[in-house]
Amino acid sequence: MEVEIKNLTRVSFSLLASLIYCHFISSRIPKGKIRLVSLLPVFYLFITLPICFASLFPKAITSLFISWLANFKLALFAFDHGPLSSDQSNSLLQFISKTLLPVKIKQNEKHPSSQPPQNSPKLPLNLPAKVLLFTVLVGVNDYKSSFHEKWILGLYCCMVYLLVDIIFGIFNATVHAILRMELEPPSNEPYLSTSLQDFWGRRWNLMVTNLLRHTVYKPVRSSLGSLLGQWAPLPAVVASFLVSGLMHELLFYHVTRASPSWEVTLFFVLQGACLVVELAVKRWFGGRWQLHWAIAGPLTVGFVVMTAMWLFFPPLIRSGADERAIDECKMFLNLVKGEGLKWIGKLI
């Protein structure tokens, strides 16, 4: 624990120094390629920071928040786009918060594709309910030797969703409490998705979706627009999923330190290819034919879960990362439980 605290201190100072440089020096460089070049050392540093940690969760969180999301925000910043652009009038504290934390400020007018269908069902889970359910599922893992492998992988799917939403939700709540910013939710009930477009574009991990939209989808669509016309969005979708797959490979490497197997990249490319087929079919029928949500929902979620069992989880299971993650969750929950009991004892 002491070693990890020292590692966290070193990483924190590196991040602070890097973002002070970005805010006060890179921001004064003309936007475009020259500013992008000035940020290259920061990009490299942010990619290497996760290996400073020994524990799995600090590696995973640093890889996702810093190596991926922060670098993508800074890439947009190089061209004066995104949450760090000059028209946002960011103070140093706001610049650091927006760069490092997985939050998106709520806009008056959201991107149209971020809205789920109005006739879809609602089954909201608030943050405390997700924490409670995740705690229960961590306990269920003690008995997984009694379950079939497919049930265990299904359990992992639920735990990944809950854990990602809990982590993003905690940061959302913290930033809202400190900076009083109105923030968009990290996800929007992805278990109620009625299509792949609905799942990946409107419901699951909206912070990542928004960044991929601005850093990959829009530039690719714009560059191919004159060549492909109305079909330009389709290769842009595949490109977005390909980049997402490669960034997940980097995250998996940080966590497992194993050579990439490219299974997770294949998972995301497959999702992108199937989404392209779905969009083409919708365009062919002109939106006149649509499955009822009671049928489309299970088909959509089932497809994502089954392909995740096939391609997403095997690299983590082979490396033992799943077991290490569960062990670290148990250690953290036991720590919280112990400290909570001490606090209650003092009150009594």
UniProtKB/TrEMBL annotation:
GO annotation (BP), single: lipid metabolic process
InterPro entries noted in UniProt: Wax_synthase, Wax_synthase_dom, Wax_synthase_Magnoliopsida
Any one GO MF annotation of this record: O-acyltransferase activity
Entry keyword annotation includes Translocase: no
Domain Wax synthase: 187-269
Protein name according to UniProt: Wax synthase domain-containing protein
Topology of this chain in the membrane: Multi-pass membrane protein
Location of this chain's protein in the cell: Membrane
Similarity field: Belongs to the wax synthase family.
Transferase among keywords: yes
Pathway: Secondary metabolite biosynthesis
Any one of the GO CC terms: membrane
UniProt keywords, alphabetically: Acyltransferase, Lipid metabolism, Membrane, Transferase, Transmembrane, Transmembrane helix
Domain of life: Eukaryota
Source organism (scientific name): Salix brachista
Transmembrane domains' residue ranges: 42-70, 153-179, 231-252, 264-285, 291-313
